[in-house]
Design goal:
It is an enzyme of class 3 (hydrolase). By secondary structure, the protein is mostly helical. It contains 18 helices and eight strands. The protein binds 2-acetamido-2-deoxy-beta-D-glucopyranose (2 copies).
Length: 512
């Protein structure tokens, strides 16, 4: 008996070693380099399923006992597996190109507490079509057909007489499937729409130019003649942004008015910079100069949002997760944007402040943490009371995306972001000094696993509904609530997934 037990143990050890060798895992690394892969309550099976190393002897010493292996295979399993990602893509796809007329339904839910969501919001549609264009797995021809439908939608939306006495381009929402303007009472104008729409269309148009499809661009997107579609779908929107960037507008949540929203300004900035480059490509140096001049002024205003502690959304709404969304959606990586780079001290400080705010604001964050679910759920802003004031999937996913972008940036820059370390130290509950001793690879893994934690917390609350994503999660129970199948929720979760994939590629390239 004794012998057989010993033999079995030996076999077990050999097997474990074999598994480790076969999967290429190196689990023998110094304690100081171990990056937590699991969370409180992680079992050996879950740890293994994430491709991580299991060493429970560290359990009581503060050393992670489920940790990432040295040098890869990179950050174990993704929070959402391929089947789950495909399901979410499918649910999102059903909300696009309604009746083949190019509109995007914000949510097919016609009966939420706030009424029907069966509308095409200009903002949601532009953001969703951008995500789909950049990260869908559609065939090139299906994607081109989908974008063509969207272009036709935008042209129909732009080329009607506004019934509400404002500029048609700043209307918030439209009837489906035909793009007739909504005429009920609503917060107007919403000036982020034209900026977001032009950014999406410029991506498409730039690819068209590169593939010699100039005639399509000249027919619809940049016509070179004011009498033909007001100069084209892209130029018409950019002209609006250049003329109105300093004006009062409603915010992205359609509740508040100001002329200094960070979300708006950063998206104006990106649209104008992209627009100036595109105008130059089209030989329109006059428009290029107009957009560049406006972009310079917007950039100067963006710097005013640092209040000494965090990047604030506006003077009348300081702590807002829309800042995180803007940092993801508008950052272009130029040196003049250094303060808005994913690992800048401003950005790390902002994440830190918002995480603390939302941790305190929602009981579900405390409950999840007690239950060993990693991450944090974000809402919209401090003091939100809409539908009781709840976590939102789209802002939470934006946080995950930002963490993955930060991880990639660390890898790409090849050094630790020393100015931001005190903020990361607070975020991770470690000293800045010990963080500062980590290798570039391990620091990047810290950030990526923070992203994984956030997606894991979302996943925990949406798995029960079969990965259908609603707008909100109940602040006390975490159950999905408000509009079902919100297109923007899918867009942001899938953007986070894409940012994770990009990190894995960058990380593997570095470790190769
Ligand atoms: C495992 O990783 C550690 C830390 O990076 C390294 O010192 C060690 O040489 C590696 N061992 C093997 C077998 O690659
Ligand atoms: C992926 O997720 C689906 C749905 O949650 C699950 O049924 C399936 O077993 C998972 N596949 C793998 C390979 O883990």
């Amino acid at each position: 008996m004794q012998a057989r037990t010993t033999m079995a143990t030996v076999m077990g050890v050999v097997l474990v070693a074999l598994v480790a060798v076969v999967s290429g895992q190196n689990c023998s690394l110094p304690d100081s380099d171990k990056v937590n892969c699991g969370h409180v309550g992680t079992t050996q099976a879950e740890c293994g399923a994430h491709g991580c190393c299991w060493a429970p002897e560290g359990k009581n010493s503060g050393t992670p006992w489920c940790f990432y292996p040295a040098g890869g295979p990179v950050p174990g399993g993704a929070p959402f597996n391929a089947t789950e990602v495909a399901m979410m893509r499918g649910f999102m796809r059903a909300n696009l190109n309604i009746d083949n007329l190019g509109g995007v339904v914000a949510s097919p839910d016609r009966n939420t507490p706030g009424g029907t969501y069966y509308w095409n919001w200009e903002r949601d549609a532009a953001l969703s079509m951008r995500m789909w264009y950049e990260h869908s797995d559609d065939s090139a021809s299906n994607l081109a057909a989908m974008m063509d439908s969207y272009v036709q939608w935008v042209l129909r939306a732009q080329n009607q007489v506004d019934p509400n006495g404002i500029d048609i381009r700043a209307e918030p929402k439209y009837h489906l499937p035909n793009a007739n303007v909504f005429t009920g009472g609503w917060c107007r104008p919403q000036d982020d729409g034209p900026a977001l729409r032009s950014t999406t269309l410029i991506l498409f148009a730039t690819d068209l130019l590169a593939s010699n499809s100039m005639s399509y661009v000249a027919k619809y997107l940049w016509t070179g003649s004011e009498s033909h579609y007001h100069g084209g779908a892209i130029k018409y929107d950019l002209d609006y942004v250049a003329a109105n960037w300093a004006s009062d507008t409603c915010d992205l949540w359609e509740e508040l008015r100001s002329n200094d929203f960070f979300w708006n300004r950063y998206n104006y900035y990106r649209a104008l910079v992209d627009g100036a480059a595109f105008a130059t490509k089209m030989g329109d140096s006059e428009s290029a100069a107009t957009y560049s001049a406006a972009a310079g002024k917007v950039l100067a205003a963006l710097g005013d949002h640092w209040n000494g502690q965090f990047i604030q959304e506006s003077s009348n709404r300081q702590k807002g997760a829309s800042v995180i969304c803007a940092l993801n959606d508008a950052y272009m990586g130029s040196s003049v944007e250094a303060n808005f780079a994913p690992t800048s001290s401003w950005v790390a400080a902002t994440v830190n402040v918002l995480s603390a705010t939302f941790t305190d604001m929602f009981k579900i964050n405390t409950i999840d943490t007690q239950n060993g679910i990693p991450g944090v759920l974000y809402g919209r802003y401090a003091g939100d009371t809409y539908a009781g004031g709840n976590p939102w999937i789209l802002t939470t996913a934006a946080l995950a995306q930002l963490h993955y972008r930060a991880a990639s940036e660390v890898v790409n820059v090849g050094k630790l972001p020393h100015d931001a370390l005190p903020h990361y130290a607070e975020m991770f509950g470690e000293s800045a000094e010990s963080l500062g001793k980590l290798s570039v690879a391990n620091f990047a893994l810290r950030l990526a696993s923070a992203g994984d934690g956030v997606l894991e917390r979302i996943r925990y609350h949406v798995a029960g509904a079969g990965f259908h994503l609603s707008e909100q999660l109940d602040r006390d129970t975490g159950f999905e609530m408000s509009a079902t199948d919100l297109t923007w929720s899918y867009a942001n979760v899938l953007k986070a997934v894409a940012a994770r994939d990009a990190f894995v590629v960058a990380y593997e390239r570095m470790m190769a």
